Amino acid sequence: MPEQTHDLLVIGAGPGGYVCAIRAAQLGLNVAIADKEKALGGTCLRVGCIPSKALLESSHLYEQTKHELESHGIKVGNVDLDLGAMRKRKDGVVKQLTGGIGSLMKKNKIAVYHGTAAFNEDKSVSIGKDTIKAKHVVIATGSEPSSLPGIDLSADRIDTSTEALDYDKVPDHLIVIGAGVIGLELGSVWRRLGAKVTVLEYLDRIMPGLDAEMAKEAQKVFAKQGIDFKLGCKVTGAEKTKKGVKVSIEGQDDVEADRVLVCVGRKPHTAGLNCDKAGVELDERGRVKIGEHFKTTGSSDEVGIYAIGDVVVGPMLAHKAEEEGVAVAELIATGHGHIDYDTIPNIVYTEPEVASVGKTEEELKDAGVKYRKGKFPFLANGRAKAIDATTGMVKILADEATDRVLGVHILGHGAGDLIAECATSMAFGASSEDIARACHAHPTMSEAVKEAALAVDGRAIHI
C-alpha cells in the first residue's frame, strides 16, 4: 500500500475536523484530512444543521404565507405546497456548502483522502489503499443517532433525523420520540407542512439541560402552535403495522402514526477506527478519553493523537467542535490554544427560537451561587410589535455581589443571533451594567437585551 506522510492527519471532515485542518494549514503544517463520505462537511452540512435549517426556513415561509400574511394586508389566495421543490432547494444548499468545503481544502493545500480510517498498531492510519503516517492525528469523527431498547432504526417508517429530512410526502401523523433540539426542530417542520405531530418525552419537561423557565414557556408556545406533548412517557418499543407504526409506552395505551421519528440523542462514532490498536481509550459511553490539551492515551513522543467534537465529553454542537478544532491546531503548531467552555451558546431553531449561554437558574441554585435576575418581554419591544414577533422574553442572570453576567436565556424571534452579543459580553467578563450602558439601536429586537440588563438592577425603562 502507498505510504503518505504529513505533519497532521485529521480524521473526519465535519465542522471540527475541517476547521482544524484549515487552521493548521494556515499555521504552516502539512495537513491531510480523511472522511468516509465524498461530500465534505460531516453530519452538520450533509444531513444535520444545514438541511434542517433550510427546511425550517421553507416551512416557516409556507406557514406564514398560508396563515399570517393577511393581517399585513397581503392576500395570496390558495397556497399550495410543492414538497419536491422544497427538498430540491434544501439539497441545493447542501451541495453548494459541501462543495465550498472542498474548495477550501484546495485553497489551503490540504490533502483529502476518502474512505474509512483505521489505526494500525504503529499508529499509522489506513484509508483504503493508502497508509498515512503523521506526527499528529486528530480524531474528529462526530456522532450518530442513538436509539432505545425495542426500537430498530433500520425498520421501515421508524426514522432518524436523516430520513426525516427527505420524506417524499407529509405524514398524516408523525410521532417524535424525544423533546430535545432535533425532535422539536423537525417536529416543527412537519407540523407546519400539515402533519399532526405528537412528541413523547421520558422526562417531565422539554429541552432538558436548558433553563427550566424558558423550556416551560417554550412548551406553551409550541403546544399553541399545534404540537401535542406527552411527557413522562417511557417508550418501550416500536413496530411497523399495516397502516404505519405502533409505539408502546409503559403503563399507557399504544400510540399509532404514519411514521416515527426517533430523536433520543446521539452517540460518538468510533466504529471501525481500531482505537484499541493505537492505545486510545474509550469511556463507558463510547467517547474518546482525553486529558490535558485534548490528548488521548494513545499519544506518545513519536505520534500525538488528539480528539475533539462529538467524540469527547461536552455538548454535541458544531460550533463547540469548531472552537476545539482551532484550539488543538494552535496547540500542535504553537504550543498554545484556548477555548472558553463557559461561553458556548446553545440554540433551538424553532419559531420562536430558544437560545442560551452560560448557567441556568437551576445550575446556579445547585451550586449555591447567589444571583440577581432581570427579565424583559418582547411584548414590550417596539420592533417586535412591528414585525409580529412579540412572543417570548430575555432573561439575564448576574452574580449578586459582582454583577458579572453568569447566564443569558432568550425565547424569541432571532434569539440565535441576539445571543451572540451576550456570549461576547460574557467572554470579556461583562457585568449586567456593562450591557445596560451600551447603546442599542432603536427599533431593534436587541433592545430587549439591554432592557433585561437594566431589569437586573430593577430599572427597565419600558415595563
What structural class do you assign from the helix and strand content?
Answer: alpha/beta
Based on CA atoms alone, the radius of gyration comes out at: 24 Å
Indicate the proportion of strand residues.
15-25%
Whole-number mean pLDDT: 97
- Our measurement of the CA-to-CA distance between the termini, rounded to an integer number of angstroms, reads 71 Å
Topology, number of strands? 22
Low-confidence spans: none
CATH level 1 name of the largest domain: Alpha Beta
Output the CATH topology of the largest domain. Answer: FAD/NAD(P)-binding domain
Which CATH architecture of the largest domain is right? 3-Layer(bba) Sandwich
Approximate shape = globular
Counted by DSSP, the helix tally is 13
| CATH-defined superfamily of the largest domain | FAD/NAD(P)-binding domain
Main sheet characteristics: 7 strands, mixed
**Total number of domains:** 3
In helices, the fraction of residues equals: 25-40%
